[in-house]
Amino acid sequence: EAGVTQFPSHSVIEKGQTVTLRCDPISGHDNLYWYRRVMGKEIKFLLHFVKESKQDESGMPNNRFLAERTGGTYSTLKVQPAELEDSGVYFCASSSLRTGEQYFGPGTRLTVT
Amino acid sequence: GEDVEQSLFLSVREGDSSVINCTYTDSSSTYLYWYKQEPGAGLQLLTYIFSNMDMKQDQRLTVLLNKKDKHLSLRIADTQTGDSAIYFCAEMANSGAGSYQLTFGKGTKLSVIP
Question: Across the interface, do B44 and A55 touch by the CB < 8 Å criterion?
Answer without folding.
Answer: no
